[in-house]
Amino acid sequence: MKEPTLVTSQNFPQSTILLVDDNEDDTYIFQRAWKAAGISNPLSVVGDGDQAIAYLRGTEPFDDRGQYGFPLIVLLDLNMPRKNGFEFLDWVRQQAALRFLTIEVLTSSMRPQDVERALELGANSFFVKPGKIDDLVSLLRVWHEHACQRVFVTLPFP
Amino acid sequence: MQDVERIANDWRILVLAPTGQDAALSVGFLQRAGFHAEACDSLEDLIGRLRVGCAALLMAEEALEPRTIQVLNCVLEQQPSWSDLPITLITTHRTEMEKVPKHRKIFAPGANVNVLERPFRPGTLVSTIEVALRARRRQYQIRDLLDERTRNLEQLERRVEERTADLLELNTHLESLVYTVAHDLRTPLRGIQGYSKLLLDDCGNMLDENGKRHLARIKAASERMDTLVIDLMAYGRIARSEIELAPVHMEEAWKAAVAQCETVIENRRAIVQSIPPFPRVQAHFPTLTQVLANLLNNALIFVPKNVAPEVSFWIEDAGNTHVRAWVRDNGIGIAPEHHERIFRLFERVETLKEPGTGVGLSIVRKGIERMRGKVGLESAPGKGSRFWIELPKAA
Predict the structure, then answer these.
(1) How would you list the strands of the sheet with A102-107, edge to edge?
(2) B327: Cβ–Cβ under 8 A, 6 or more apart, which residues?
(3) C-beta of residue B116 within 8 angstroms of C-beta of residue B90
(4) CA of B67: how far to CAs of B45, B57, B190, in Å?
(5) What backbone phi and psi angles, to 5 degrees, belong to B130?
(6) In chain B, at which residue ranges do the beta strands (DSSP E only) sit?
(7) Rounded to an integer, what distance in angstroms lies between the CA atom of residue A153 and that of residue B2?
(8) Is B139 helix (H, G, I), strand (E, B) or coil?
(9) CA B285/CA B334 separation, integer angstroms
């Protein structure tokens, strides 16, 4: 039996956050907003569900955990080529060791069915991408402040 | 084959006599006269054949036992609406003293009975049966017309169902198209907005005033388009979401609407007041909140820049069944000739520097329509506006 790890405000700043989004403009602006919000956590970015799975598994090219740290939180876009956000969620919740992985949806969809489906598939929360970069910065500030106060449990994977 | 059989049954004459010999005699006589006649050897036999089909009944009074009469009356009462089965009853000679004809005592009042008194000439029987068949022919014509009408109605109903299903599918398709388009429009927009902001932040000192102005215009235009797309998505949601009507506290919906507009209220230093009492209405809370928030937002933004917006909200009775909620502002007002136009999608009449998207009041009307209410306004330029919505009172 592998031991679970507890993550609290003490070790939160060292935890990697994984952004899964195919739109390069969005991810670039996101990274800028991340810095502007003063968040020091390492941020990794992959472009679709398939890459996100490879990242979690630590298979090539993500086999260096020093560079590609195992994420504490996955920020997930829904609309992506190849494996989309829903399919990724579905895969994650079938992995026993990933059952506590925090997945927060960050998408431009405001469709009630999308929110419902994502939550049913096991997403922990759902955010709508703000149009303005300033709004994204303030969203990230609030999100970060809240995330620091939370207690997470992670299991070794794979 | 079935049709031939059906026609034969339709035109047969069923004969019920006290003895088999009597019946065979009558049948033989009728067949020689060119009719299709069949003898029934018991009441059960008669009823069985009657249910399959029969043009007329010929029966002798002697064949009618009380039980026979009861069952027969019962069967006659159950005839379909087009049918009025002709019955020829052969009776024995009556004395002149008898005032009430015998068949009136025997059959239920609605029965179509013709009495032939013995002795009669064979020709009389033939013409009586001919008259009965003529009547029956008319009844069959009505039956066929009714059948045709039923078939047509069924076909029509099927067609309506098919069309409705087609329309619903098309509607769902269109609405999801609106969503996809709106969603896909927002993605490049975020890029334009984000990069113009970053350009201004990173390279602002390399641009002259003209360059900065152009960049600011790009940013403003893309922000405006984003608002437009968001409004369109909200309109789509109101237009298609499931709406169930339930009792709603007007005050709670208004408070939620005020909370949604808090930033504008603070920025514009607006005075917003609500005047009780607030009855309960039959509505859908999220839709009502959105409707009120849009009315309040309009009341707050269509006000000259140097004037603090003043908005009042109150409710009064509109007849016994409905209430009318008012949102009054001190804004720029709307000329009466525009009162209908402003509720249409993308229509705008205001001349302010910061225009609306032209979707807000369309959302109001669509939301109110979906809650089976009404919306309207009283307004004139420079006089402010008083928008009203009418909703049914909660039971």
Answers:
(1) A43-46, A16-20, A71-76, A102-107, A125-128
(2) B292, B295, B296, B299, B311, B312, B313, B386, B387, B388
(3) yes
(4) 14, 17, 90
(5) -60, -45
(6) 13-16, 37-40, 56-60, 86-91, 112-117, 246-249, 271-275, 280-283, 310-318, 322-328, 374-379, 385-392
(7) 78
(8) helix
(9) 28
Question: Which structure tokens are listed for B21?
Answer: 């010999």
Q: What is d(CA A34, CA A137) in angstroms, rounded to the nearest whole number?
A: 7
Residues A31-76 pLDDT 10s: 999 999 999 999 999 999 999 999 999 998 998 888 999 999 999 9
User: How crowded is residue B88: how many other Cβ atoms within 10 Å of its Cβ?
Assistant: 21
Is A95 an 8 Å CB contact of chain B? Answer: no
Mutation site, A34, A109, A114, interface B, largest B CB count within 10 A:
A109
Average pLDDT, chain B: 88
Contact B197/A136 with Cβ under 8 angstroms?
Answer: no
Q: How far apart are the first and last CA of chain B?
A: 62
Q: What is the mean pLDDT of chain A?
A: 90
Q: What is the arrangement of strands in the sheet containing B385-392, beginning at the earlier edge strand? A: B271-275, B310-318, B322-328, B385-392, B374-379
Cβ of A158 under 8 Å from any chain B Cβ?
Answer: no
pTM: 0.57
Using CA atoms of B140, B143, B145, B150 in order, give the dihedral in degrees to the nearest 10.
-160
Closest by CA to B257, choosing from B302, B289, B220, B226, is B289
CA distance B193 to chain A (A): 6
Q: Is the pLDDT of residue B181 over 70?
A: yes
Residues 239 to 268 of B: which have CB under 8 A from any A CB?
Answer: 241
Tell me if chain B has a CB within 8 Å of the CB of A2: no
- With contacts defined as CB-CB under 8 Å, which chain B residues touch A23? 187, 191
> DSSP label at B245?
-
Which pLDDT value is given to residue B100?
57
Nearest residue in A to B219, CA atom:
A132
